[in-house]
Amino acid sequence: MRRWNSIWAVGLLWLSTPACATPALTAATAATDAAVALLADVRNPTTTEAMLRNLATLARTCAWARRYDVIVFHEGRSDALRPRLEALGNRTRLRLRARDISDEFATHAPATTDWPRRRLRTFGIGYRRMCRFWFSGVFELADVRNLTYLLRLDTDSELRCRPRSRDPFELMARQRAVYGYVAVKTDHPMVAKNLTAFGAAYARRVPQIEDAFYRFPPHAPTNCPAPMFYTNFEIMNVSWFAAPRAVAFARAVDATGMIFGNRWGDAPLRWLTLALFAGRSQLLCFGGEYDYRHRGPQDHCGLSFNISVAGCQAAGGGAPVLPPPLPRSL
Ligand SMILES: *[C@@H]1O[C@H](CO)[C@@H](O)[C@H](O)[C@H]1NC(C)=O
Ligand SMILES: *[C@@H]1O[C@H](CO)[C@@H](O)[C@H](O)[C@H]1NC(C)=O
Ligand SMILES: *[C@@H]1O[C@H](CO)[C@@H](O)[C@H](O)[C@H]1NC(C)=O
Ligand SMILES: *[C@@H]1O[C@H](CO)[C@@H](O)[C@H](O)[C@H]1NC(C)=O
Ligand SMILES: *[C@@H]1O[C@H](CO)[C@@H](O)[C@H](O)[C@H]1NC(C)=O
């Protein structure tokens, strides 16, 4: 098996001299400025069990996972969670730590919404807070802002490495990518009301990106399909998402009240942010790099949808153009 250099500092140096992309054969040392992060629901034993099981699988199959911190965000007391994380850390040598984010949650969320219907109970206030947290709240945390990259997983994300799977952070750094993902889909229309129209209106107020992967429809009706990155696996360049233009966009989203009002999700909002400010070459599709499952295998870099609703096509009629799967030779 080919072994790439895994010393972070060297990886960054290497970026400043892209002409000499020779893999160094040095031994692995700890890279401290990237982390894997999850948001636990400490009140739900079933999802917590699943999360611990999935983390054990990650540790067993991905050597690189032990080189980074694994942050388990949670809201409120974690007396039950902490010893279990410690035991898992002892057993797997994952560098696990619990991080209480109650303050972040409390600051932005209304106490209730008028729309957590029984039929859609996962779309209640807790879910909406989660959406806001992953969309923008996470980048407000000082210890996250200190990181170069964050790999986010959900409690039910099953990430297994194959023998040839590579370190995702090294791949991000080598490509100078700002965002890594495994699949692109569309969100449910019930929870994406006016989302594309909002993005399109915002796009008219900011400079256009040269090699944008998506052009907003010029006169989007309120019912346009909402493309999304499937954010239960995503890797973010933290400074890019913490930069003023992304923060200003997040404030504009907050001002609509639609995360809590209509349950706009972090996934289509991530798409909007990247469509507004990122070029195609800054995206990296990890579909196929890992055996990744979230309600089934997720390994499609291509578009699995067709934006065919009248008025919702991109300016000029073009479909989104996303990068191909990342090559083995990278
Ligand atoms: C983890 O390992 C440390 C050091 O060996 C030990 O003190 C601690 O009790 C262990 N924790 C658990 C929960 O197993
Ligand atoms: C962020 O990094 C700086 C410099 O390394 C360090 O002094 C500071 O304590 C870190 N802050 C947090 C919140 O981790
Ligand atoms: C939809 O979004 C546009 C652009 O942000 C806004 O002007 C309009 O009022 C919104 N319509 C509804 C029904 O929310
Ligand atoms: C992350 O994004 C920032 C802001 O765009 C950029 O300056 C930085 O070089 C990027 N980091 C890496 C490691 O590519
Ligand atoms: C998208 O849908 C439209 C209308 O149903 C159809 O004419 C078109 O061929 C489809 N395009 C693709 C790429 O599937």
UniProtKB/TrEMBL annotation:
It holds the Pfam family Glyco_transf_15. The keyword Transferase applies. Residues 1-21 form the signal peptide. GO terms for cellular component: Golgi apparatus; membrane. One of its GO terms (molecular function) is alpha-1,2-mannosyltransferase activity. GO terms for biological process: cell wall mannoprotein biosynthetic process; protein N-linked glycosylation. Keywords: Signal, Transferase. InterPro entries: Glyco_trans_15 (IPR002685), Nucleotide-diphossugar_trans (IPR029044). The keyword Signal applies. Belongs to the glycosyltransferase 15 family. This is Hexosyltransferase.
